[in-house]
């Protein structure tokens, strides 16, 4: 993926919740999931530590949602929604 906004937009379009927040001198908090449904994974990164936010979110999504539209598109394979897969 190219940038954080692109990754978060693609996750959103795949109905995968994610968040990015910052607090001065506390780094950037990245999370996959949400408060209502729970978080699958979260981390704090700091400027200059060599971790790219978009790469972290991308890998976390592939790990936790391997059959999602997001993961299928990233792998270049067709996405079959669960309701259509059950009809087959």
Provide a short characterization of the protein structure:
With 88 residues, this protein is α+β, with helices and mostly antiparallel strands.
Overview features:
3-stranded antiparallel sheet; about 40% helix; 4 helices; alpha+beta; about 90 residues
Explained architecture:
- With 88 residues, the chain is an alpha+beta fold.
- Helices cover 40% and strands 23% of the residues.
- It is built from 4 helices and 3 strands; from the N terminus they run αβββααα.
- A 3-stranded antiparallel beta sheet has the order 1-2-3.
- The radius of gyration is 14 Å and the shape is globular.
- The model has no long low-confidence stretch (mean pLDDT 91).
Work out the number of β strands.
3
Q: What about the largest sheet?
A: 3 strands, antiparallel
Bin the strand percentage. 15-25%
For the biggest β-sheet, the strand order reads 1-2-3
| Radius of gyration, whole Å | 14 Å
- Alpha carbon gap, first and last residue: 32 Å
Structural class: alpha+beta
Could you report the average pLDDT, rounded to the nearest whole number? 91
Low-confidence runs: none
In total, the number of domains comes to 1
User: Secondary-structure element sequence?
Assistant: HEEEHHH
Number of helices: 4
**Helix coverage percent:** 25-40%
Q: How would you describe the shape?
A: globular
């Amino acid at each position: 993926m190219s940038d954080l906004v692109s990754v978060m937009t693609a996750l959103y379009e795949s109905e995968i919740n994610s968040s990015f927040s910052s607090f001065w001198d506390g780094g950037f908090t990245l999370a996959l999931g949400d408060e209502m449904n729970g978080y699958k994974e979260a981390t704090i990164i700091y400027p200059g530590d060599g971790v790219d936010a978009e790469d972290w979110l991308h890998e976390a999504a592939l790990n936790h949602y391997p059959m999602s539209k997001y993961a299928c598109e990233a792998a270049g394979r067709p996405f079959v929604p669960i309701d259509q897969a059950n009809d087959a």
